[in-house]
Amino acid sequence: MDKIHAVQINTPSYAKDGKLHVRLTKGYFQNVRRLTSWPLIVLFFLVVWLEWEGTPLLLFSFEQRQILFFGTQLSWHDLPLLAGIMIAGASLLFFAAVAWGRVWCGFACPQSIWTWIFIRIEDWIEGPAQQRSRREKRALTLNDSLRRITKHLLWIGVASLTSITFTGYFIPIRDLVSPDVFQSSTTLGWLIIMATLTYLNAGLVREKICLHACPYSRFQAVMFDQHTRTVTYDIERGEPRGKRRQVEALQDPIGDCVDCGICVQVCPTGVDIREGLQAACIDCAACIDACDSVMQTLERPKGLIRFASEVQLQKQPSPLIRPRLVGYGAVMLVAMSAVLLGFSTKENLRVDIARDRGPLFMQLDERTFCNLYNVKVERFHPDLRNVSIRLTDPTLFELFGPTQLDLTDQNAQWIAYRVCSDQISSPRAEVGFLVEGHGMSRQLNTSFFTRSLDFQNH
């Protein structure tokens, strides 16, 4: 079986100044990319402001040690659910990679989405790629300086909005936009760090993240096989490449590629797809749209660059559904089913009971014994605000401690209780705690001691 090999990435001829001046293009796949990315952008900036009955719709609260997840409250006890979500997401990523390559990177990855936003701002302020390239090679004029300053100010604005929104998923967004945020050096420092990272990654570093920092680009070759549909250049059809005037002069047959270089100019990572599959290629399909527009102008068939597998280029059958793909799909479905089952059986009321670290029991008189307990009640439902706590058998035991608990502002604190009885003759009995509230209940049983077991045995 032939393997797809990555090749060395060379600096494109149009980027000899050390910077990629990405040329924007239009086409079918760019429309698909925008239809994918813009809803994600809207959700990112919108969901953080939405609330459900006074609580954020999605919030990772370190202060309360809870995750508010679309009306459901999760705690550290629900970490297996989060692990299941991550496994399902990773399986979906692998599923897509085996079938169509790095489409996640090209169409939905936040790094790619924000990079395209910054590129469009750059194109809007400083002009198309060719103009930007010429400006880089000449001395700055006043007009160039004003354009560049405006561009960076807009970049900083987008980065700041991104930082505030992202932080709003950990601290309520309405607290972040209040003047009090400037009184917290920790929060303000975090906002500045996130804004700086966004500005650097999407504005200045860009393709170097995909080239050197993204781990997925390093193990993508393990995910691909000869049937994976990736952005591919049809060598048999395109080579030897050349321009029309060269053909007329030499009278030699050439392929459909006219060596215009537009496929390289529109690539956000500077890849020349004609050199084969490369680690930096994110399958954004910009080169496909650019090449198709050239082929259409030259009245030649589209698809010189297209999503195709290695086997398809060899004019052989290439099934999309295959055991490897089915395997990743099965893992994804199992993980998603487990997560759904976990959510359906999740505890909305959790009660923990621990014995006091003091003596095993206290003896008040000849028949009355008392045990000390610490009880912690946690709520994971927005409607559960008050609970009552009592013993399941009040005829045998008497409870000393608060019987009504307000969980609205309670941060999962341990509360001391004393249980006494004068009707237990055995050295050890079972006592049950019952916590009820808003139609929910939780019962836990624990041991009640009246005398030392060792003493009884003697």
UniProtKB/TrEMBL annotation:
The keyword Iron-sulfur applies. One of its GO terms (molecular function) is metal ion binding. The keyword Membrane applies. GO terms for cellular component: plasma membrane. It comes from Nitrincola nitratireducens. It comes from the Bacteria. This is Cytochrome c oxidase accessory protein CcoG. The lineage of its organism: Bacteria, Pseudomonadati, Pseudomonadota, Gammaproteobacteria, Oceanospirillales. Residues 247-276 form the 4Fe-4S ferredoxin-type domain. Keywords: 4Fe-4S, Electron transport, Iron, Iron-sulfur, Membrane, Metal-binding, Transmembrane, Transmembrane helix, Transport. The chain crosses the membrane at residues 35-52, 79-100, 153-171, 183-202, 325-343. NCBIfam families: ccoG_rdxA_fixG. InterPro entries: 4Fe4S_Fe-S-bd, 4Fe4S_Fe_S_CS, Cyt_c_oxidase_cbb3_FixG, Electron_Trans/Redox, Ig-like_fold.
